Amino acid sequence: MIRLEGEINSNIDRFVWYQQLFKILPVVVLIQLTVLIVTGSYRRFWRYTTINDLIFLARSLLISSVLIAIPRFLGLNPKNSDLFALSFGVLAINFLLALILLSTVRLLRYYLIEQRNIKKRLREFSDTQKRTLVVGAGEAGIEVIKSIQSHPELGLKVVGLLDDDVRKHRMIIENTKVLGAINDVKYFVSEKDIDQLIIALPSLSRSELKEIYNLCSHTGADVRTIPGVDQLAGGKVNIEQIRKLSMEDLLGREEIDLNTPEVLEFLKDKKVLVTGAGGSIGQELCLQLATKCNIKSICLLGKGENSVFNTLQSLYEKLGRDTDLEIVQKIADVRNKARIDSIFEEFKPDIVFHAAAHKHVYLMELNACEAFENNVIGTKTVAEISGKHKVKAFVLISTDKAVNPTSIMGSTKNLAEKATLITSKNYPGTKFTAVRFGNVLGSRGSVIQVWEKQIASGQAITVTDKEAIRYFMTIPEASQLVIQASAKAHTGEVMLLDMGEPVKIYDLAEQFIQLSGFSLDDVSIDIIGLKPGEKLYEELLTSDEFVDSRLTDQIFKAKIQTLISDEDLVVKFEEFTMLASHNENEVMKDKLRALLKELSLVKTNI
Fold first, then answer.
1. Residue 85 to residue 73: CA distance in whole angstroms
2. Helix or strand or coil: residue 195?
3. Count of CB atoms within 10 A of residue 425's CB?
4. What is the pTM of this model?
5. pLDDT at 605 (0 to 100)
6. Left if phi > 0, otherwise alpha if psi is -120 to 50, otherwise beta: which for 229?
7. Of 70, 134, 419, 426, which is most buried, counting CB atoms within 10 Å of its CB?
8. Considering the chain, what is the average pLDDT of its residues?
9. Same fold, 129-245 and 261-598
10. Residue ranges per domain, the chain?
């Protein structure tokens, strides 16, 4: 009827047409129903219809249309046959009508149920709606809006979108208007009485995110974001991924590419042992090595069984429990020579990353002997055993506090570097290197963790000095650069990592308060003064005073001081080892001070 536009020439033609219709219709319907049942179209839950369900329905209807068209393909003519010989035009119209009607029924049911649920939840939470502005009108922004609209119980109401693409301005996306440019965010927050901003721009670089955050943070609205494109990995944004910005979001830099020929050659199919595997850097090193470096096996060595267990669980979360990577866990103290030797004998590592160390500046001031034993003797022990077992590379994780040390921790890490370099001369078959970097955001005992606890308990957050300056790096960034620097270094070298721009601790504290959802009037900042061993300013590791050469934009080779012979240093190590065994803390401090002066290191106010 549709094909003929309702026009049948005569009563006879009309009679013949209806006669053919009543013969053909039951057969066509039977074929279509049979195909829909066989293909499983009716087993799909209408209430949760998606575009994939509609595509599946279209395929099923297409199969039935092909089956019905077989007689026509075989040469039967509609004029000579009452049954099956349908014209291609009728078949096409039938396919489209069936698809439209069946799709409409499914979509209508889905829509009605969703609207009913949304309205029900909206009535329950209508009094607590937070007016929200989404920054970014791309795919991520659209997904954010969809997620919010389907979860009214969250109490969020999207008022508008902001985007720098002028072609989108004043357009309607998901019933939401694109109001204007991101630079005008302060105006729109005031104009629309906005309570919350969501930055939905996952492809932003760190610097771009920081710039947009600075614009948003001055509006007075709560600022949230979604994960970066590397974390989303092509998945849709859901409401659980909308979170507050962190210090890592703003101070971190771009991810380091570990898929380089040097790194691949250095680590591919290697057996890797990581000491201090339960610590912040040790755990992240294990994750980076296991997920990005195509190693053969990994040994998690640590003194604390709980922390090593946590690292193991983190690896399982990333790799799955059925991973082909061999994961070995060993609980041991790096000072126990016999235990470490037996572990090397059993595991036979190719590469060792030595991250085990005491790192807390103030606590090491109170425990100088323990600091020396763990940081120096522990390093010397693992390095010598690495050489003995002909490990291909030994990498010491060092610190910027080893530069012109003013603390026990810094001085012991400086001596650990020297112990590593001395060992490199005794075992030429192994590459011995050290890698220095500064403060790591989010590591255990870091200032960020201290502030989080202080804010959670309603206290003022503490800062040592208003002028104190530090260099910061995120845990993933530090670990990636350590791996890259290790691959590039030669034996007997100390590598430096570029820590980026210096940050005033006081400014960082203000930013942290705002990121925590408070204003500077809500949380006070107390100045408590520098603790023993702490510096007001950290040395810039990449200054000419310390740098011998540049390997990449972020990796440098350090200048090595040789103002005292290796033999004399070995004698000093033996003397200090005896002091540590008798717990002579004050004598240890005096001896360290004297040794550092002998090494002509300035600022030795320990």
1. 9
2. coil
3. 11
4. 0.69
5. 37
6. alpha
7. 134
8. 82
9. yes
10. 11-121, 129-245, 261-598
